[in-house]
Each structure stands twice: as C-alpha cells, then as structure tokens.
Amino acid sequence: MKKLFYLLIAAVMIALPVLSQDKDEDEDRDEDRRSSAWSRAKLGGAGGITPMVGMFDNAELDRFLSKAGLPTFGTEPTYLIGGEGYGYIMFLRNVRMGGFGVSGQRTVNVLEPMTNGKYLRKEVEYTVSYGGFLMDYVQPVANRLDIAIGASIGGGNIGLTMTRDDGSFKQWDSLWVSFGDTARAANSYRRSLSGTFVTFTPHISIEYTILSWLQIRIGAGYPMMFSQEWKLDDIYEVNGVPSGLKVKGYTVNAGLMFGFFGW
User: Fold this and answer.
1) Domain-located, residue 156
2) What CATH code is carried by the domain that includes residue 68?
3) Which pLDDT score is estimated for 258?
C-alpha cells in the first residue's frame, strides 16, 4: 500500500513537467480560457483511486499497547487505499455529489521468551476504514485547474485483533482440555474488538485535468468520528472504551480520476 502511494505521487510529479511542454503551443488558447475560468460551469462525472496517508494521533492506543508489552505506533503515518466516484448536479452550479471509501491497517508484534524455551508471540492488528456520501463545490481557477472544497458524512470502523500464540502444534483433544480448564490461561488466544462510528470529514483538493477523461489531484482532509459503539468478537457489547480511541488527525491524498471533465 505504501509503495502504491509513492508510485502514484511519482506519476503525478512526472506528469506535470511533461504536460508543461505544451504550454507555448497552447498559450493563446489558454489565455482566453483563463480570463473566463472563474465563470465556467463544471459538468460531467468521474471515479478513481485515492491512496491516502493518515497522520493520526495514536497516543490513546499506544498507552494500551505499551501496557501489554507491545511496540507502539507512535507518530508514524497510516497508509490507506480507497476509491471515489461523483457526478455534477445540474440544478446547483459547480456542485458535485458522490461517494467514497478508504481503509488501511497496521500491525505490531513481539516475541516473549517462555520458561520452556519457546517463545510467545503477541500481536495486535489495527484496521481503520470509513466512507460515505460526499458533496463538493468546485471552483475553476485556470484552464484545466480547479479547487474543490467540500465534506463527507458516513460511517467508520476501527478494528483491533489481539493474538497470542506459543507456536505449538494444535490437536483436537488438547484444544478441548484447554477450553475446559478455566484455571489456566491459554497461550493460544485471539480476540477481536470492533468500534463503529459516525464520521464527518471536511476536505479540500487541487485538481488538474490532463485529458478530457483523465484528471490528477492532490488533497487533504480531517476525518472526525462520533457516537462510538464497541463490540467484542462482533457479539458482546464493550463498555468503558476511552473516548480518545478513534481516528484523530489529518490526511493527505493523491489520486487519478477517470471519467468526463468539461474544460
């Protein structure tokens, strides 16, 4: 996922200088269009991929990882991948509506020595996903160049899968013995915590139309999550979850959109 984001950023950075080679040939035509860019009405629709880097505050989660003897996430970014689709609505000038979704994951683990010479592997997998309905107002600022400002509202999910395993062979009889022995903590252990949220994300992006069917963009957003509900193994309600255990921070994204762009 990280490699995909870097490749897309590289493609955007390479495309811009190549496209600028046509500047001299199109200068007269572009000058005429630039003068009327602010009054130009947008139309069409598109869809595409939107890799994203999330600079999230992981302090609350790191506190519990540290207590469990695991490495923390710290300030390292979370890489997400997703998609978006939209269309301009004709009764509101330069307004488009659509939907989007993104998701990503991170994992931390540690090996702890046991008294029998084996190692106990502890691991926590952290996943985040959110998406929903979006609405943007798009303002043309120059020929082929637009600024989009808007917001999205929808739902989100945070998943935490906690795994502990001693690497031993698993046999049918021993599994039942371990299940029935309530006095002994099992070395093989897996639990899943899932939190669902209402999400609201204001965002802004700069978009450049390369061809009538191809556009590149760079943008930023600030996802916010509310009304959390947590469950254990998708069955049992979990109470007392810290309110700070949610996505907090800003995102940076780059994307390639395919469709029809009026310019």
Assistant:
1) yes
2) 2.40.160.20
3) 96
